[in-house]
């Protein structure tokens, strides 16, 4: 099938590459000329495990190509995916200017039937707005479909190629048949393609992300309460997770959720509720608790240093909002770094993938190490913000040689407190 993907951000690039992997001819469109030229030269603009292999293979197989021409993409694609950014607006709502701007242009350019697919995460009712924007200028038939993505950063390629489910929102039999044909290779094991109306599909994505964010936030509150009463959140988590009604996933406490999805989507659903006269009280609490949780380590750090961080050198492990990505959007590490800098500390940080992005954001406000142990040289303490695999089994003897004082503040509960005590570390984590 012939596919166009408008927008080559995280979702668009993974979508286009994985659709090409099943034999489709894909043209990806982006207005950023430098980015398009890099991709044409087989340079992947984001870090996502396994994406580079598929990316290169499909470019070389001439199933995947890139252009800045919207007209070229629309002329090629029978199915056109809109994978455009929906950034958080000042009032917390999703800003639809990019999607509606492109929709307006699509109406002027299409000359034959197209299925226009909203792949971006969008509020309820967006399909109608896209349809109206296209219809103003369109002189041919088209359908608008909602097809939300459920990709986890760090696992996006696997999630796309082996989806748990695919949600398609459409009242058009013609569009639905094309979407089912497109996704048939991805659900051969029997996982469902769920057909529903557009509004229900749009809400499904927001509801799923908001529920998971609430689950994380609840466990963070339990962890904070564990510290007050002397309970161990790891034991509580295991006791809860073995209940099949609850499940084991998203029960790990820490320093809050970040990234491009959960923060934005929770706020957008909360704002959509207000606009419709409904108060999502649970989401209001989730937003407030998560914001506070991002800096929950700061009082522990200040208390250890008697509220005087001036001149203290802090090593930081992990900058990305989660492991296996270079995404720093709403990363808890940044909130912790801002607080430490404001208190007079200096920082040397290490992350396997995200340092370049942080350097673009912070410049020379902090230093960056070439390796994980380099961040510890002459540091008064280590703060762990992201649970990268390489941090899980470090050489504690090397760490003790490099640190001025054997102090670790662990925002991801990577180590056993008793073992750390035996190793000679002052070790503080979350909820234990």
Q: Return the CATH topology of the largest domain.
A: Rossmann fold
- Major sheet characteristics: 6 strands, parallel
Tell me the overall shape: globular
Estimated radius of gyration: 23 Å
Structural class by sheet pairing and helices:
alpha/beta
Q: Give the end-to-end Cα distance, rounded to a whole number of Å.
A: 54 Å
The total count of strands amounts to 14
Strand order of the largest sheet: 3-2-1-4-5-6
Write down the domain tally.
Answer: 3
Name given to the CATH architecture of the largest domain: 3-Layer(aba) Sandwich
Average of pLDDT: 97
CATH class bucket of the largest domain? Alpha Beta
Work out the strand percent: 5-15%
Helical proportion?
40-55%
In short:
With 432 residues, this protein is an alpha/beta fold. The protein contains 17 helices and 14 strands.
Architecture blueprint of SSEs:
Blueprint: E1 2-6, H1 10-21, E2 25-29, H2 33-40, H3 51-60, E3 64-67, H4 70-76, E4 79-82, H5 97-109, E5 114-118, H6 126-135, E6 142-146, H7 156-161, E7 166-169, H8 173-183, E8 193-196, H9 198-229, H10 233-241, H11 262-275, H12 281-293, H13 297-304, E9 313-317, H14 332-342, E10 346-350, H15 355-362, E11 367-368, E12 381-384, H16 396-402, E13 407-410, H17 417-423, E14 426-428
Parallel strand pairs: 1-2, 1-4, 2-3, 4-5, 5-6, 7-8, 9-10, 9-12, 10-11, 12-13, 13-14
Helix pairs in contact: 1-3, 5-6, 9-11, 9-12, 11-12
Please tell me about this protein's structure.
The chain is of the alpha/beta class and 432 residues long. It folds into three domains: 2-196, 3-Layer(aba) Sandwich (Rossmann fold), CATH 3.40.50; 205-293, N-(1-d-carboxylethyl)-l-norvaline Dehydrogenase, domain 2; 297-428, 3-Layer(aba) Sandwich (Rossmann fold). It is 43% helix and 14% strand. The chain is built from 17 helices and 14 strands. The protein has helices spanning 10-21, 33-40, 51-60, 70-76, 97-109, 126-135, 156-161, 173-183, 198-229, 233-241, 262-275, 281-293, 297-304, 332-342, 355-362, 396-402, 417-423, and strands at residues 2-6, 25-29, 64-67, 79-82, 114-118, 142-146, 166-169, 193-196, 313-317, 346-350, 367-368, 381-384, 407-410, 426-428. The strands form three sheets. Strands 3-2-1-4-5-6 form a six-stranded parallel sheet, sandwiched between helices. Helix 5 (97-109) links the parallel strand 4 and strand 5. It is globular and about 70 Å long. The mean pLDDT is 97.
